[in-house]
Predict the structure.
Amino acid sequence: MDYVMETMGNLIRQTAFFSLTWGNCVMILVACFFLYLAIRKGYEPLLLVPISFGMLLVNLYPDIMIAAEDASNGVGGLLHYFYLLDEWAILPSLIFLGVGAMTDFGPLIANPVSFLLGASAQFGIFFAYIGAILMGFSDKAAAAISIIGGADGPTSIFLAGKLGQGGLMGPIAVAAYSYMSLVPIIQPPIMRLFTTKKERAIKMEQLRHVSKLEKILFPIVVTIVVVLILPTTAPLVGMLMLGNLFRECGVVKQLTETASNALMYIVVILLGTSVGATTSAEAFLNLQTLQIVGLGLVAFIVGTATGVLFGKLLCKISGGKINPLIGSAGVSAVPMAARVSQKVGAEEDPTNFLLMHAMGPNVAGVIGTAVAAGTFMAIFGVM
């Protein structure tokens, strides 16, 4: 009987009930809320579901993220090994490979002005960098936080890992992916605020046809130019352009399908759950996290606003041929930001089709955010 009671006592003590803190309970509720947004509201479910579940797991069973050197048996937790792939920049780079294989760069090639719109939307990144410095963050931490303004989760994770800001990776990644999923809610009010009804109703001319040769040369030329200027961008820009070359060259259909489907989804699972698992109560529930989330929101708002305002400038310069709404797509949330430009424009005129025009700045924004990350790495001498 004593053996039975002792065994039952051991089993009960091994349950998570005895180790749960109030912070764990709060984070479990946050994870459930994110799951609700992903499943019920459809906010970027491919990202939010694994992130939310990783958040749930680590707050129920913290040892799932324990490092091998801290474990009694010398074996680390499952999600710790997934997380190492984030720190080593492997998963973010593979995400870019998949994005390149799925994305048509034709609208950007057809309208090179899109590069300027994509660049203008990166202003929020440098605004957030200055803000983070003023709030007392170190220069490297400020740089890692600022990339949230580009609404680019993989680049945020990549830069945080490269700059040695692993302790901030969880809040930074969750903030970046949250704002990516909330693009349809955050951007429209800003777009309407800075544009007139007449500007939102502007119809743009149909884009010119882009030849197959142009589409093949584009990723090669961009890789050569960007990596020569900023070699530190090679992991992101190189993988993005390699994926696009798979898509456009027409001779590696199997690689294109693998990169854009099976590999992409595997990487999303690994990256999402490991990022979510960095949000333990101890790491997430503090003033610093609130500052990061706040700075990210401000940066995203500023990036959207500067993209629209630069679009207004180009609208005037072009004699009313450019709809300023497409400037908001200069953030890196592909293709969500471009769809929002289409949606807001269609509210004024249902026959107005801005999606393909907005894809140009949207793709340029992906490249621009990677270049911004590479610039920070170059400034701090990180390879």
Observations:
- The chain is about 70% helix and 0% strand.
- The chain has a mean pLDDT of 90.
- Residues 152 and 173 are 9 Å apart (CA to CA).
- The longest helix spans residues 287-317.
